[in-house]
Amino acid sequence: MQLSAPIHRLKHNAKRMARQKPIALHEALDHIAVEEGFQSWSHLAAASAGETPATAMMSNLKPGDLVLLGARPGQGKTRVGLELACMAAILGRQGYFFTLDYHERDIADLLASLNVDRAAGQFPITVDTSDDVSADYVISRLQDTTSPALIVVDYLQLLDQKRVNSSLPEQIAALRKFVKTSAAICVVISQIDRMFDLSGKDLPDVSDVRLPNPLDLSVFDKTCFLHNGAISINTP
């Protein structure tokens, strides 16, 4: 969609509108975005920035999807997952990011790198860094929500770390049942085995997913793999 002016000019217009109204800057940005034919400023910004791994994934998601997102350390899988949760509003959804790997301060730093100010209410995202995160925990948190959800769980290999939690196959089956019945979307971040680095392949695939405990990966509706800025999106 062609913008009526360069994005820096639209930002300037939003700042002027925020001063004149007066309204919050994020409200002015969203108002400008709607005038340009987008649902929100985040939608406009994503479209104007061109396709990224997160926007590529976003365009392939549909209600009821259970998705695996895998990459080696340092390839940006957590950032992509967090960006997806932040962009949930594009699909008219509430974004949730559950992590067993990061603390609140780490997430705040990642959000800042995405130019997201949660305090300003730019994006409707809920971040949960509880040590109790599991499939049952996620489902219980979302059981009474009225808005459709886009859920990101970070990460697969830690879900059954506690003995009190169900087995990994049982947890993934529970998440699959929940997203199917609630029309939610759930993206589960996964580690990739270090042997991939010696494989010579351009991108990982399901054979490279690190599985300390057995799991049939065909339970996922889609698998997405990142490496060196590229992404593959596959339907098993």
From TrEMBL:
Q: What are the GO BP annotations of this UniProt entry?
A: DNA replication
Known Pfam families for this protein? DnaB_C
Keywords for this protein:
ATP-binding, Helicase, Hydrolase, Nucleotide-binding
Q: Which GO terms describe its molecular function?
A: ATP binding; DNA helicase activity
Which part of the chain is the SF4 helicase domain? 122-210
Q: Which GO terms describe its cellular component?
A: cytosol
Q: Which domain of life is it from?
A: Bacteria
* Keyword Cytoplasm attributed: no
Question: Which InterPro entries does the annotation name?
Answer: DNA_helicase_DnaB-like_C, P-loop_NTPase
| Protein known as | Replicative DNA helicase
Q: What species is this protein from? A: Tritonibacter multivorans
The major lineage groups are: Bacteria, Pseudomonadati, Pseudomonadota, Alphaproteobacteria, Rhodobacterales
